[in-house]
Write a structure and sequence with these properties.
There is one protein chain. By secondary structure, the chain is of the alpha/beta class. Helix content is about 35%, strand content about 20%. Helix 3 links the parallel strand 1 (about 30-35) and strand 2. The chain is globular, with a radius of gyration of 23 Å. The two termini are about 40 Å apart.
């Protein structure tokens, strides 16, 4: 995705991909280029063709017994940078939006702050969990409990509104849904109660609708994100700027920091004109 490398030295990208493929035993790789980078697309495509003609890609590379192919993917738009599930969705030709991820940082922090027990309830099995393998291993090593094929149905509170428990339901895996993963199906007569004093609901990375609805006239994108000018982070409302996940979806801290700096400069200029 580094535009400079793709345009100036695409062979270095190809060499790195071949080396990485050999190291992990892969036989196929992808180079993702956004369609608004025509020069990068042109040069990568030419470099891939030359690599194939030289015998560095394809079946039995240089009679080594190792086969590897690279495919150039022209992205329809920017995927959410730094989020691999969004990138994979874009490569597959679907909307580049992150899949829900287990709340590992939250649950591990809760345990470190003194919780006697911290549990993740996940509606699919461990095999379908959209998380890195090391995330799961580190959480298990730290003492996090997992309860798979289980979903909260409702929360229980006392007369003062304090959380005391949750009702959960067992699930079974059914036919695949639009994401390609098995759809969780409720198991009849399988509800049970668990005592809890703190619940963190992790249901995606969408902007908080309560805030957005308070701003009449704020232009919202097709995914529920706030639309903003990426040069100034200005929204459709004069004097209001936005950045980070509320604009990009689930992205990285680095991108959010960059948005903040651009917004700060634009706000300073705006105020000086007033």
């Amino acid at each position: 995705m580094d535009r400079g490398f793709l345009e100036s030295n695409p062979f270095s990208i190809i060499e790195g991909m071949i080396t990485g493929g050999y190291a992990v035993g892969a036989d196929r790789g992808f180079i993702y280029v956004r369609q608004e980078y025509p020069l990068a697309t042109e040069r990568v495509a030419a470099a891939l063709e030359q690599a194939r003609e030289a015998g560095f890609l394809g079946e039995n590379i240089l009679s080594s017994g190792f086969s590897f192919e690279l495919e150039l993917v022209r992205g329809a738009g920017a995927f959410v940078s730094g989020e691999e599930t969004a990138l994979i969705a874009s490569i597959e030709g679907r909307r580049a939006f992150p899949r829900q991820r287990p709340p590992f940082p939250v649950v591990r922090t809760a345990l470190r702050l003194g919780a006697t027990r911290a549990t993740i309830y996940y509606r699919r099995s461990k095999a379908e969990m959209p998380a890195r393998v090391e995330e799961v291993k580190h959480a298990e090593a730290e003492g996090i409990f997992f309860n798979f094929l289980t979903v909260p149905v409702r929360f229980l509170g006392n007369s003062r509104g304090k959380l005391e428990g949750t009702v959960l339901q067992k699930l079974a895996l059914g036919a695949p849904d639009s994401s390609g993963r098995p759809r969780p199906v409720p198991v009849p007569v399988s509800e049970f109660e668990v005592e809890v004093d703190l619940a963190v609901v992790a249901v995606g990375q969408s902007p908080n609708p309560l805030l957005i609805k308070q701003l009449t006239g704020l232009k919202i994108g097709g995914w529920g994100n706030v639309e903003a000018d990426f040069q100034t982070m200005a929204t459709s409302l004069p004097g209001i700027h936005a950045g980070g996940d509320v604009v990009r979806g689930g992205a990285t801290v680095i991108l959010a920091m960059g948005d903040g700096r651009r917004a700060a400069r634009a706000i300073d200029e705006f105020l000086r004109k007033e």
